[in-house]
Amino acid sequence: xxxxxxxxxxxxxxxxxxxxxxxxxxxxxxxxxxxxxxxxxxxxxxxxxxxxxxxxxxxxxxxxxxxxxxxxxxxxxxxxxxxxxxxxxxxxxxxxxxxxxxxxxxxxxxxxxxxxxxxxxxxxxxxxxxxxxxxxxxxxxxxxxxxxxxxxxxxxxx
Length: 158
Prior knowledge:
By secondary structure, this protein is an alpha+beta fold. The protein is about 35% helix and about 30% strand. The protein has a seven-stranded mixed β-sheet with strand order 1-2-3-4-5-7-6, sandwiched between helices. The longest helix is centred in the N-terminal third of the chain and has 15 residues, at about 10-25. It starts with a strand and ends with a strand.
């Protein structure tokens, strides 16, 4: 397995992997119709748009993209960042790929410059992010109006 920054030609495969993962992994925690609306937005153009303002990474096994994740500024702030679009193909979950993605994101310059890192987490992702040292922002563990649970990690920046 290899992790690297996304390239434009990866977008269709990343989009398909995200859509598959939402359909299989997230529908156990959310209504199917809500996930179908989300799937409609996760097109290659959306992946490339996100990659345009974040550092977007993909994990590949041979020529197959099996995971992704991005880190970028939190609303343009220099001292706060956010993690986005963290997905692992359902056929490859529970094999350390999510940890590999998080380790990479947490070594990225956007992470290292930030005092606070936020994750707009799905209900599905919360147990994983808790294991990775993130906690509920403002102690709120229920989904917001966007159906996300805001999580964060605070760190000292030298």
